[in-house]
Amino acid sequence: MRVTVDTTQRPSHKLSLIALSIASVFSNGVHAADEINMEKVQVFGQAVQIDKALNEQRNSDSIESVVHADGIGQLPDDNAAEALQRLPGVSVENDQGEGRFVTVRGLAPELNAVTINGTNIPSPEDGTRAVALDVLPSELIQSLSVVKTLTPDMDANSLGGTVNVRSLSAFDHDGLFYTLSAEGSYDDNTDQTSPKGSGAFSNIFSIGEGVDNFGVAAALSWQKRDFGSDNVETGGAWDFDGSPRLEELEQRDYEITRERLGLGVNFDYKADIHTNYYLRTLFSQFTDTETRNAAGMEFDDPLLPNESGDGAEGFREVKDRKETQEIQSYVFGGEKTIDLWTLNGQIGYSRASEDSPGHIAGAKFVGDFDGVGYSSTSKPTLNAGADYYDPASFELDSVEWEQQKTTDTEKNIKFDLARDFDLQGYASQVKFGGKLSRREKDNDLEAWEFEDFGTNDTSLAAYSAGNVDYSLNQFGNGISSSAVEALLNKLNKADNVNEEESRINDYVMNEDINAAYVMNTLDLDDWTIIAGLRYEGTRFKAKGTGLRDGDYQTISSKNSYHHWLPGLHGRYYIDDQTQIRAAWTNSVVRPTFEALAPGFAIESGDKASFGNPELDPMTSKNLDLGIEHYMGRAGAVSAYVFYKDISDFVYETDVSKSGGLFDAFDEAITFANGDSAEVYGIELAYSQKLSWLPAPWNGLLVGANATFSQSDAEIEGLGQTRDIDLPGQSKQVGNLMVGWENDKLSMRLSANYKSSYLSEVAAIDKKDLDQYVDSQTFIDFGASYFLSKNAQISLEVKNITDESFYVYNRSSSYNAQYEEYGPTIKLGFTLTNF
């Protein structure tokens, strides 16, 4: 038997909203009168997750979408990113077939923010602000939400939405709770199996003179996954003058071992009915060991499909590295009420890092070949003779050796003070506060390049490994990383330091933000109105190294800016089940660290990439209007329209031959501010359990949501302007879910769709070289069966249709990158005590 409680909150001239508990009757003919006499009912399952999420969404002051754990502490997916992609307007960017970065309303991950237990989370990667949410195992999480309209007491640093992660608290359960899980998965692409283990525990204790006033919760998750992918890419090396011709292509095979470790320990203490304190801790470690073998061809002259040419340079290359990302977060805070006053305070410290010890960044073997070409422009297949697959045809050209360490640290302190008062008979609350945030991003790269190998054997035959398991074409032998490392051990590294790469990629950036706000909430008959103003002042400085006319120069840059950000939220209650929401908000999104980097990197004599520390932040004026209606078990339908007026959007572009320093390069990738952009659209959502249908159909759950948006942006340069879509913005995002459950069995079939989007802007006069990510549809299936009240088995199939990742130029006919991963099958067992 399963019973849920649907809590509706609506003001009745009280700021403290009243909860109306409505019991619903489901299987086995249970009557409402029986439910009233029940002292406690245990609930779990898909419908419970949806019910809890809808109640939080319904009662939020903001327009918000929520994913909640069920009654036994389980989120619907393995990691935070994949759980969030089920929400309206939310999709994920995948890496090696796994959901990692979250997009909201079609807007790119770097335009959104991530907080864990109320504190911002920095990014472990050197160039981005986006946080890869696959580092957060679902076992550590009680709920996830995406706030799409920010109130003045929230950081204004997101355009699409702010992802809030709330970890497990002991007070989420009554008394002792624990769950233990074991899982095995199979990767179809590599025929590898992988283990996973996890557990969570919480309990409530009585200390001092209190009763049940101290809670401890802990969660641990470990996974080691062996998998891989097959890739073919051109990198956009098309000549579109006349009939499109290809200049080069590369086949890649990835073999990856990915290990995750997550640990969270949380404490809650209720000193008395007016005072409580909490400590939230999180540690997450994500280690990738990756070997990438590549086989490619650079044609002497650009070729048409099925055309052959002589004098081409073929190459074989290996990259082998181990990379460890860590995220640590510690949040201490508390709340105290004194009469009509409520004081909240919080201190947060977060540190993210990425460590790549010494590794082969690229060992390249080359040879000359005649009579080579390719077929197909969308998934190019290399056509070459037997000599291309003979290791004796290649000689070692160069080896790059690198080590890198990136750290991103944020410290913050904030307080909020609120007072309830009566305004001519209506309940009201004034709230004000401030926040100080100090962030430092540090990158240190050391590089070596070897081109003189003395008398050592440099034939590929001396360094060959076995044949590469590559599904897209014939590949040939791989390269032995250990053999290359043995060669480097014979050479003097001190004589081969790449000073240019080592110095110009090092930087330190500091970003200090001081914020303050004031806001007032008023319950006015059937209205709730929130009006306020937020101030954010930013001081930014960066220090790095540049290379001009053969001399290294220290580059220091400073910037400061101030933003006053008003906001107005309104909620109108048509009845107990229906409400209209409207919001006018303002936000500011700062450029990525890659865009702000003070140095520049020369990749070869005619190619370079530059940061731009003088970039302005992106600002946006946002309007949202919508209606929500709640109905029955796990039931809701909603519709929202939104509009964003954006200034100074940041985009990546090619500024070669545009004057000054950039004249020396055929390709010069940097970042620039666009003038203005608009994003507008509609967001629709529906979910419900069809409990009124006759058995067994009364176990059906359905859910669907879709976001349709449009963006208009303009860029300028070289005396020209052209219109583009906002980079990273998908015009259509949608989800469809069909589930079924009873007391023992739960099943779910889900589909997630994201349309194509512009990923990289080429030079203003080279529109054909813009790069687009193609649309994707992922279909997943999951099922779980309760062997007993406390034990269940589960089966999950990810990416059933073997969806690929595809990037193209000009149109979907012209490949920039194609990659496929294969399905993954998971089988698990969970033991729970509650």
Automatic annotation (TrEMBL):
Domain TonB-dependent receptor-like beta-barrel: start-end pairs: 368-800
Signal peptide: 1-32
CDD domains recorded: ligand_gated_channel
Domain of life: Bacteria
TonB-dependent receptor plug domain: residues covered: 57-162
Protein family per UniProt: Belongs to the TonB-dependent receptor family.
Entry protein name: TonB-dependent receptor
Species this protein is from: Methylophaga nitratireducenticrescens
Lineage: Bacteria, Pseudomonadati, Pseudomonadota, Gammaproteobacteria, Thiotrichales
